[in-house]
Amino acid sequence: MNTALKHWKEAATVILAAGTRRSPVTEPPLRSADRVTFPHKTAFDYEVLLLKRSGKSGFMPNAYVFPGGLAEASDFSGEWMDLFKFFRKLPNFGIGVMKQPLEARPPMFATDRARLGSPVPGDVAFRICAVRETFEEAGVLLVVPSKEAERLVTDALFSPAAATERWDRSVIAEWRSLVIQNSSNFIRMCRELDCLPNIWAMHEWGNWLTPTGVYGKQRRYDTAFYMCCLKEIPDTVHDQKEIVHFKWSSPSEILCSYRDKEIWIAPPQFYDLGRMCNFPLLRDLHSFARQRSLEGCEQWLPVRLLATDSYISLLPGDSLYPENPDFLGKMNISAPAEKCLEELQRESVHTSNEYWEESTRFKGSLESENQHCARTPLMVSSTFFDYCLYECVLVSHRHKSGTDSQDQNLTLKEGSKTRVQH
User: Fold this and answer.
1) What is the pLDDT of residues 50-92, one digit of tens each?
2) If we measure between CA atoms, which residue out of 348, 266, 352, 356 comes closest to residue 311?
3) 68-70 and 9-19 as β-strands: parallel, antiparallel, unpaired?
4) Are residue 248 and residue 364 in the same domain, yes or no?
5) Residue 284 half-sphere exposure toward CB, CA atoms < 13 A
6) Do 328 and 215 sit in the same domain of this protein?
7) From CA 178, how far away is CA 379, in angstroms rounded?
8) Of the residues 295, 325, 360, the one at which a domain ends
9) Which domain CATH number covers 179?
10) Based on the domain organization, do 99 and 114 belong to the same domain?
């Protein structure tokens, strides 16, 4: 944990995608303005976990989020080195060697943790954080027995129930209470239960910075996003404190609920759920996430733009995204020529990543092209801008355009190379 950071606090979150027992049904995808949008909800054979934050929360009250939270000193504790002693000799504790050059890695991953007093690499510690927070907030314990870790760490889908069936539920519940009280108890739990956080099931997915001027100066996070695919939906119990409700739903169901103003999700959730719409089948999502994890990611900072009738959240790669983003929140950005959303949408060449917000009519997002190609969503709005929908980049489109190379399938469409200097 980097305590020297002045503007952000480091955090980790995990997108849990769990298989359902129903078989996917082939249905025509939802369409808007004759453009393909996301698959029908029945096309998915998995669901995603969302947690509703308390209305009393000082950060994004009532929002639906993925499990996650702040990194703690215990996540970087040297005590983990003994627990992971078998994996210490493997590259990155068995996670694998990152293809992305160190100088191109987001700062939270590139930072030399040994210089900060921790022998645990950031790639490992943030995964531990994601596992711990998921246990605290949702009661889902993503661990593997230590003696079987080498055998269980495979490319297969992870089954939390099978890994934790040796322990009585009351024992797990008691440990959860202790971990919520003090994060260092997570190390104690793993030692006494002889288990390890399943860091190998956590596939690097992205890195998001909290935008400036939205949640207050003291509420900004540098968050690692991971994808974790589970064989089945695990028992889930929210903590009744920070989290007041949970729901498992398909990506398209969540996006529809957001469009219909039944729930509110932030830009990262909205964007990543759209990415997942490219993969209605869990096995395809898992394969993609596992293989692209070692490609690395870029750090993304949404930038808010004020139009005459709406707020717009811009992402790197959008034509209106500033060349030198205001990472510290010292400047106010207003739309050029005081234009409205429709005018900006019509005139902008690359508006793909843009997450459009209008308090009285709709909230949505668009997606553009950028240098890393592949799996990202595209929002499409109706003639009257009543709502926006993601447009999936379907596999069939790749073959039609002749862009079905392995590299394109494994990398992300991401924007500029802008990096933050903490």
Assistant:
1) 999 877 776 777 889 999 999 999 999 999 999 999 898 888 8
2) 356
3) antiparallel
4) no
5) 15
6) no
7) 43
8) 295
9) 3.90.79.10
10) yes
By DSSP bridging, strand 362-363 and strand 355-358 are antiparallel
What is the pLDDT at residue 1? 59
Q: Are residues 232 and 315 in the same domain?
A: no
pLDDT of 220 strictly over 90: no
**Cα torsion for 100, 104, 107, 113, to the nearest 10°?**
50
Domain residue limits at 373: 299-410
Mean pLDDT of 338-351: 70
Residue 385 to residue 358: CA distance in whole angstroms: 10
DSSP-derived letter for residue 306 is E
Q: Give the total number of structural domains in the chain.
A: 2
The answer as to whether 415 is a domain residue is: no
Residues 137 and 156 in one domain: yes
Report the pLDDT value the prediction gives residue 373, as an integer from 0 to 100: 33
Same-domain pairing of 317 and 202: no
Instruction: Please give the sequence-ordered ranges of beta strands (E in DSSP) within 265-397, or none if there are none.
Output: 299-300, 303-306, 311-314, 355-358, 362-363, 378-381, 388-391
pLDDT digits (tens, 9 = 90+) for 377-403: 433 332 222 223 222 222 222 233 333
On whether residue 3 sits in a domain, the answer given is no
* Spatial distance between the Cα atoms of 106 and 134, rounded to a whole number of angstroms: 23
188 and 285 share a domain?
A: yes
Q: How far apart are CA 45 and CA 41, in angstroms?
A: 9
Q: What is the mean pLDDT of residues 159-179?
A: 89
Q: How confident is the model at residue 153 (pLDDT cuts 50, 70, 90)?
A: low
173 pLDDT more than 90? yes
**Same domain for 221 and 117:** yes
319 φ, ψ to 5°? -65, -30
